Amino acid sequence: xxxxxxxxxxxxxxxxxxxxxxxxxxxxxxxxxxxxxxxxxxxxxxxxxxxxxxxxxxxxxxxxxxxxxxxxxxxxxxxxxxxxxxxxxxxxxxxxxxxxxxxxxxxxxxxxxxxxxxxxxxxxxxxxxxxxxxxxxxxxxxxxxxxxxxxxxxxxxxxxxxxxxxxxxxxxxxxxxxxxxxxxxxxxxxxxxxxxxxxxxxxxxxxxxxxxxxxxxxxxxxxxxxxxxxxxxxxxxxxxxxxxxxxxxxxxxxxxxxxxxxxxxxxxxxxxxxxxxxxxxxxxxxxxxxxxxxxxxxxxxxxxxxxxxxxxxxxxxxxxxxxxxxxxxxxxxxxxxxxxxxxxxxxxxxxxxxxxxxxxxxxxxxxxxxxxxxxxxxxxxxxxxxxxxxxxxxxxxxxxxxxxxxxxxxxxxxxxxxxxxxxxxxxxxxxxxxxxxxxxxxxxxxxxxxxxxxxxxxxxxxxxxxxxxxxxxxxxxxxxxxxxxxxxxxxxxxxxxxxxxxxxxxxxxxxxxxxxxxxxxxxxxxxxxxxxxxxxxxxxxxxxxxxxxxxxxxxxxxxxxxxxxxxxxxxxxxxxxxxxxxxxxxxxxxxxxxxxxxxxxxxxxxxxxxxxxxxxxxxxxxxxxxxxxxxxxxxxxxxxxxxxxxxxxxxxxxxxxxxxxxxxxxxxxxxxxxxxxxxxxxxxxxxxxxxxxxxxxxxxxxxxxxxxxxxxxxxxxxxxxxxxxxxxxxxxxxxxxxxxxxxxxxxxxxxxxxxxxxxxxxxxxxxxxxxxxxxxxxxxxxxxxxxx
Amino acid sequence: xxxxxxxxxxxxxxxxxxxxxxxxxxxxxxxxxxxxxxxxxxxxxxxxxxxxxxxxxxxxxxxxxxxxxxxxxxxxxxxxxxxxxxxxxxxxxxxxxxxxxxxxxxxxxxxxxxxxxxxxxxxxxxxxxxxxxxxxxxxxxxxxxxxxxxxxxxxxxxxxxxxxxxxxxxxxxxxxxxxxxxxxxxxxxxxxxxxxxxxxxxxxxxxxxxxxxxxxxxxxxxxxxxxxxxxxxxxxxxxxxxxxxxxxxxxxxxxxxxxxxxxxxxxxxxxxxxxxxxxxxxxxxxxxxxxxxxxxxxxxxxxxxxxxxxxxxxxxxxxxxxxxxxxxxxxxxxxxxxxxxxxxxxxxxxxxxxxxxxxxxxxxxxxxxxxxxxxxxxxxxxxxxxxxxxxxxxxxxxxxxxxxxxxxxxxxxxxxxxxxxxxxxxxxxxxxxxxxxxxxxxxxxxxxxxxxxxxxxxxxxxxxxxxxxxxxxxxxxxxxxxxxxxxxxxxxxxxxxxxxxxxxxxxxxxxxxxxxxxxxxxxxxxxxxxxxxxxxxxxxxxxxxxxxxxxxxxxxxxxxxxxxxxxxxxxxxxxxxxxxxxxxxxxxxxxxxxxxxxxxxxxxxxxxxxxxxxxxxxxxxxxxxxxxxxxxxxxxxxxxxxxxxxxxxxxxxxxxxxxxxxxxxxxxxxxxxxxxxxxxxxxxxxxxxxxxxxxxxxxxxxxxxxxxxxxxxxxxxxxxxxxxxxxxxxxxxxxxxxxxxxxxxxxxxxxxxxxxxxxxxxxxxxxxxxxxxxxxxxxxxxxxxxxx
Lengths: 788, 788
What we know:
The structure is a homodimer of 788-residue chains.
Chain A: E1 2-8, H1 15-29, E2 34-42, H2 49-56, E3 60-67, H3 84-97, E4 102-110, H4 121-124, E5 132-135, H5 142-155, E6 160-166, H6 177-184, E7 198-202, H7 212-258, E8 275-281, E9 284-288, E10 317-322, H8 325-328, H9 337-349, E11 358-359, H10 361-371, E12 381-385, H11 388-406, E13 414-418, H12 427-431, E14 449-452, E15 456-460, E16 463-468, E17 471-475, H13 478-481, H14 491-509, E18 514-519, E19 523-524, E20 530-531, H15 534-544, E21 567-570, H16 585-588, E22 594-597, E23 609-613, H17 615-619, H18 640-658, H19 665-672, H20 694-701, E24 706-712, E25 715-720, H21 733-740, E26 749-752, E27 755-756, E28 759-763, H22 770-785
Parallel strand pairs in A: 1-4, 1-5, 2-3, 2-4, 5-6, 6-7, 10-26, 13-14, 13-18, 18-21, 21-22
Antiparallel strand pairs in A: 8-9, 9-10, 12-23, 15-16, 16-17, 19-20, 22-23, 24-25, 25-28, 27-28
């Protein structure tokens, strides 16, 4: 089965003529069943493209939407009700059920003509990413419009199989644009499909008279004469498709030979479970799934199965929901054309340019944007690097040196951290973590700190509680757990303070010297997605900054920003709305001296990290000697592509946070945020909420195989009951395999989740539709309810 | 002075009409001197656009090239001789000398219509990056062509100030595309200039009769009636420009407040020397230079200075040659539209997608490409990470664990390295280097190895030599130094072997255990751009692999790939043709077990690093336990944008290496590659060559202030005589300031070089034109010849 989409470089360039010619060739020359689909048409039905086509080829013609006026569909009445998703969904189902050898989908107008919703044609159809036949523009200026259309398609990640053009009409100026595309362009620098792309031409159709019968005959003759070129096109696109499929078929094999996966024991990889990601859109991977079962044979168009020349093939492309948000990076969805264009703009304007002793708009602008949001109230400086690990290395270097000077330390300096902490995989950031499975086999690992076991927030068997060692503290309102300011004078806060104070004091008496408090606020991520009691972290910070009498650094001069030791927040994972908040400081009620952000920062496109620091810390590095500076850098420091994309991403994340994303807030308050479901609400602006349904969280927490669950923002984390806890646990395996099966909801997709031992987590993006969240929730309940 | 460039969404959309309307408004309403420039026109002179314009506005009209036929200029005779560079250079000089308040540059055809050379219009004019007025397409389909044109311009890094459109002619179908751009589009997701972009419209011009006099009057009336809209456009673009300049003026100030520069002692930064990089193209930064002197007042168009209403302003944009290749990343030039499109394609097709247990074409394809080139003969696996430092962390983890298992080591494992080594700024990679200025202030630094002082290759006072401690070995042929295979049995090789062997043996007797040899082949980079004698490194590798009797790991079973300890090549800087070779293995004649590449890998766009490894190393990590795997990863591991761009870059670098880039090879052989300049050549395929002229290298080596120089590939490194050697030396300061002055060659650009203490290095890309290399060479000689 071979479906192509026809885009036009402009309107009236011959999309319908070419569609007819191709269908004609398929039917009469290749004797291959063929379908023509016009998802959205404009103009009177009797003039519709498929009516023209049906006159000359006895093939199946399908029309999904027809708008009456011959104008851009977005201007027609009722257009706005026709959503992109509904068009794509209808077309996808139609194609999945089809068994025609060839299918041609004709778009409306040019590549960027608005769809009924106002989206551009090329954006509308992107989720299907069908191979493209680009109908080039033969008119004066058509070289320009054709290349422009081609580039727009490439920016959306389409592959173009061929350019199809009409030759100049006889007795008209001979612009010969087709010659440019046949002979020159595929060798030129601006062509990105040099290996594959071919240009095919047929003459312009004959001029029409007023004699319908004569016109029909002339056109019939025309199509008959063009059929051999049409046949050549069919052969070409078949070959391109064959090559493409052969490659996809071979990719698992080659990957097993050549790739060394991160975080992976290769002997435990099941080749059949390697996902061949052919493309991605929104939250979905489109995977090539040679072994996927075809489910909808009964939905086949009647009779199409009987045609002897076509074998019913399996549908090889399937969708997988990216439930790990591609290692926690995705917030705005895959394949976003706006972000792709932003990346291209910065690449086109700068490429990468040097930062030290220089400046540029993306780097400076992003710094300003961050300091006025994430760093508001405390940070004055942005230090750029490439990923969370390097950002944390910089943070450590900043903090340790500042503490060394401030407290006149010499010799070994350590940090205060948390059990289960993870700050990256460079050896320096590993040293800032307690011994664990990640670093035990690293030869130069040398953990440098003392580590606190964290009290953990969870929902277990329908109850909200904070678990601290063997003690459990119940809460009726989850929101209250995260209303830290109301808890700072609680008995538990006092207990935390004396516990922490004493452990630090004891260590110092034993000769330990501390240079920083380093924590992942709110959630200890790779260490098992533990939701740490925010009050505990608040008290840790207050101890580190000498604000509590229990602190070894206690001072009454609370306004002294240099008091105590520097506090480092690693918000690489949790920051920028992952947990429904811009930053943890607004929940904890305290500021750090250094903070690292990454992951969501660049909208899930390219690596970039920022280390924000206070001016007080910056000043420790000032002197008249170069060697006193922070001599740390990476070649692509503050690369404009990343910085510019980050600015656009932050704007959009903020926008989404203020609008669509938070529709669940009220439901969370109602369910988990008050004394009881029918009680009086304790707050109108919840500290804790999630896109996951609170009732679903409640339900999951009661499942037999589930120990506990917690959800904040886009994250839901489920701890499974398991004998062999920890990172090496295989408890989740069975469940994950079942989640992957392609049978979620009406759209038939699977869920690809990554385990962390016996913890299974699920992340949405900020653009995940509510109905998708509901579908996934239902599937999770279903899978987790089955026996293991 | 305000110059704009007018691009058309298509041909015949009204570029000339709008040009005339704008000039008319400037002249008659704003009373501001205005110039109209048509750099390349097509068609008979009497029908040329400027002839039309001159009829209605008494303003200066400039035409640079006119091709006779009314067709795409690339098809005209003689067109190919009209290079892009010559057009841009002529236009740049003209604009620099101009003092008109408003200038409008009209392009030919649509945004992508081919220029005389065959380049696209939008690529041709990109080096000037003038603000754009996009003339939208009012015809049916014009929404699509206008958005497509807009996106093409954005991909090239242009800023669009406004969209200008003609309204539909009366008595014709009213498509009202202008309404879309006036009312809908600037709020839509696909518009990237939401804040600034406005759409202006004027009516279509009146239909013309055959009566020239009547037509003239009708057009005059038309322009007169359109003048107020033209005036509004002038006000708008003036405002946009004002905002832009105000921001540029403020950027140094804001940068000083908010950015924490890498590798920079902020107290030593001179704000006046901060380069405000507004954009970049090829090897050039376009900087905003408020203090730059205007040199060419005498070249002003006659009389233009006298017009009272215009003050002669300084020309604020200047060019700076990027002589550090933006921290060694650039090989294909800034702002390459092909790479920008490649980045956009991968972003549009995937965004970022998960790697472990998955696969995708960019990640797998790049691995295959690398293994069949850089890794050919030895590597089987590619491990992805984000930058050289993380790539080296991975390399260290691979090598140390392999050695630990192989030699059953326990306790502290160290490496063998070089003095002056630099492998990145993470603490782990710092630990693989001897104590130095970079790591001395890092609290957790702990150098773990023994370090060899390297014999160094240099050209000093016209002589080629290898300097080893206090001994100097003269060579008449530089090429022979790099013909390592001919030297392996030399006396010096024996000396090296016994020296190295003894030092390692002694250390081992003292209890040191070694897990890897870690070197930067050929050039020790950040440590001072030292060109290490390749024979010394060859011997080091042979010792490490147990191939020489002097080695403590000596074994006669040379074919045993696991013999000795793993060898790690850090080719982050020197690899991928930076030194004129794909990889050092071909010069050294030995393979590593692990190699890291980065920097040039992604053509200077985004961070990405690869650690290549042999299958033997990979196998040390296999077991049935997850914890035995290499548990290292970064969120954006193998991000498709980087991988896809890298594939395109590698292809192009290889192509350039086989063609244009190597024209200097023969000259190097003749000068430095034989017994004497007039002697018989020793080789036809030089091991050592550079894009820098050998005679220039010779000349520089004789300058009074120069201690020595060396050049390979695109790198030339000059060691200055200086009292206070090392990284903290300020010897270079004076020279660097002079190099920055905007007065190099005919095109008036400065050179922005970064010092490494008393070492000044210069890098070209692979696309630097020969005349530019010559201009830079001349300026360097000039500056270095002046007293300090």
